[in-house]
Write a structure and sequence with these properties.
Layout (H helix, E strand, L loop, with lengths): L6 E7 L6 H9 L5 E7 L6 H11 L3 E5 L6 H14 L4 E4 L11 H10 L2 E5 L6 E3 L3 H17 L12 E4 H10 L8 H12 L4 E5 L1 E3 L10 H17 L1 H4 L13
Parallel strand pairs: 1-2, 1-4, 2-3, 5-8, 6-9
Antiparallel strand pairs: 4-7, 5-7
Helix pairs in contact: 5-8, 7-8
């Protein structure tokens, strides 16, 4: 079995042929010893073929092909398993469209090393969004406030998709085998369960930028899934909240 770096970036793709070569180059240009795992959901635009070409040219790049579009959450879980089976100890999430700046990867890693996980946060001091309409900002910010009030999460930007997890966090979360949100609600569920298990999440301020190419994957179905998932989290994980499965100490930091 091929080995991967202890620091591995998991990059889900679906119809990202415009962005993939540039984002892969930008990720691997960072001053970290990184592997890049591209998880492609059989993109009809040929993204998977581009990923294979990049992997043939650079041994730091690996590709996991899936049969079809299965959702962001399942793509990340498959990627995490694949990478951890090959030695990864710290695993990053990042979007393929340059909404997240790869230059922030070292800051996320340093923060995760001092805690259990790090989240790139738009809504803590120093963070922000560029290129968004007022409506989109209100929907995103409102979704995080809703999550905080209903699920009682401590992480301010629970919907952020720019993260670094230590292996111990992912092993604990995936051992539960209950995380099943498919869209962006996946980030909320992961945050909630990590906090419930007692892991310490720190937030690193980032500036989120509107995608530079391709089409957004956001849809009304993803939005409504988020509302539904948040509402049911405390019931779904009531056993953990009662303290029966706390695996680590520490509280989330804002």
């Amino acid at each position: 079995m091929e080995s991967m770096s202890e620091l591995t970036v998991v990059l889900p793709t679906y119809n990202e042929r415009e962005n993939l070569p540039r984002i892969a180059e930008a990720i691997l240009a960072q001053p970290l010893e990184l592997s890049l795992l591209i998880v492609d959901d059989n993109s009809p635009d040929g993204t998977g073929e581009i990923a294979d070409r990049l992997a043939a040219e650079d041994p730091r790049i690996h590709v996991l092909h899936r049969e079809g579009k299965g959702g962001l959450g399942t793509a990340y879980l498959a990627g995490f398993r694949f990478a951890m089976d090959r030695g990864a100890q710290y695993l990053f999430e990042i979007d393929a469209d340059f909404s997240h700046n790869p230059a922030d990867l070292p800051r996320l890693y340093e923060a995760a090393r001092k805690a259990d996980a790090a989240v790139g946060s738009r809504y803590v001091k120093g963070g922000g969004c560029e290129g968004w309409s007022r409506l989109r900002w209100m929907i995103s910010r409102g979704g995080n406030i809703y999550t905080k009030l209903v699920a009682r999460t401590r992480t301010v930007d629970a919907t952020s998709g720019f993260r670094c997890y230590s292996r111990r966090v992912l092993e604990a979360l995936m051992a539960l085998d209950r995380i099943d949100a498919r869209g962006y609600a996946f980030q909320i569920e992961m945050t909630f369960v990590a906090e419930a298990l007692g892991f310490r999440i720190v937030e690193v301020p980032i500036v989120f930028t509107e995608r530079v190419g391709g089409e957004s994957k956001m849809s009304s179905n993803i939005f409504w899934e988020g509302l539904k998932v948040v509402w049911g989290l405390r019931r779904k994980y009531a056993d953990i909240l009662k303290g029966g499965k706390v695996l680590a100490g520490g509280a989330a930091a804002e």
